[in-house]
Amino acid sequence: MYIPDLYKNEDKEVIRTFLKANAFGILINQTNGKLWATHIPLELESNSEGEEVLMGHISKENPQWTAFESDNQVLAVFTGPHSYISPSWYDHENVPTWNYSAVHVYGKIKIIEGDAVIDSLTKLVDKYEQNSKCPVRVAELSKKTMMQTRGIVAFEIKIEEIQAQTKMSQNRDDKNYSNIISELEKTENPQSMAVAKEMAKYRK
User: Fold this and answer.
1) How distant is the alpha carbon of residue 21 from its chain centre?
2) Which of 33, 73, 78, 83 gives 192 a disulfide partner, CB atoms 3.0 to 4.6 angstroms apart?
């Protein structure tokens, strides 16, 4: 993606934290000569070789998986909070814009099978069940329920390149920067308020 130098994020730890916090992404590849995209959780994990990979699974009913063995590059897109920024919030005339964070991950995809599938599902369920009153555990599911795993294709994406952009009004002076945060907070819109919270991290 196009990333102006001012908004380029090359902090590996910040990117890693972002991917873990915004794991519901879009997996994009070319299937039968057509671009294909699926919205799914893509979890940043370490594989059996100790490499950082993205783990995920899709339904076997989804034609996208039929191209996974072609060894072509795939793209995973992740986005964080975003918000419209009104020019009325500045102390001078300017144009409207949008604040957002995004990470693009490029890599090669590999189908996984056997115990690796159950391990991947266990990590996924444990992550999202941790705050439940009665957490579900994969190991406690019945054989009948686990039979449904036959209907999925699990995979890992070996990461080849990461492009990250954090556009949070870095080009504004302190006065206008603070005013943008204040105006975002007034909207009471969850996305806008989340952007305000992100912006507050960069300038005190």
Assistant:
1) 7
2) 83
Q: Any alpha helices (H) in 54-189, and if so which ranges?
A: 115-129, 143-146, 174-186
Residue 103: C-alpha distances to residues 18, 45, 201 (Å)? 8, 16, 19
Name the β-bridge partners of 82.
100
Which pLDDT band holds residue 204 (cuts at 50, 70, 90)? low
* C-beta separation of 101 from 198 below 8 A: yes
Q: What is the DSSP letter of 50?
A: S
Q: Which amino acid does the sequence have at 156?
A: E
Tokens of 151: 């209907």
CB of 124 closer than 8 Å to CB of 149:
no
Amino acid at 132: S
| Residue range 159-174, pLDDT digits in tens | 999 999 999 999 999 9
State pLDDT tens for residues 110-126.
999 999 999 999 999 99
Q: Which two tokens stand for residue 36?
A: 């294909």
Whole-angstrom distance, CA of residue 143 vs CA of residue 136:
15
Distance between CA atoms of residues 185 and 196, nearest Å: 6
